[in-house]
Description:
Number of helices: 2
Shape: elongated
Oligomer: single chain
Amino acid sequence: MLLRNLAAAIWKKILRETMQEVQWHGGVLPKNTHVVIYAPYFHRDDENLPDAHRFAPDLWLETSPGGRWPLIPFSEGPGICPAHNFVPMLGSMMIAAILEKRRIALQDPKRLQTDHSLPGTLDNYTLRFNLANP
């Protein structure tokens, strides 16, 4: 679940505007209100995601990762990323091309262990990989 933990600012927030008046427990949010949603709220909710605090990349092999719970690298609805299918396809093709000729290994495997809890966010820019001949 690397995408749900990236520290890149663009993926940490969702910007929306209410299309109609919204009823909340404590009151009403008026129509046309700008809302900022903190994405890790969805991605790390252990009441709705059994792997909320684990590195679980196999989750993305599912047709609907997270079931009906929103996982956000690309969003949904009117604010959906226009490249929501293109980006994962291109990334997969790039990794497949590398794996045809090289083996990729995380320099510090302790950073992403499937049997340990993850930090609240993961700064992907600090991950380092080695390429080796197969």
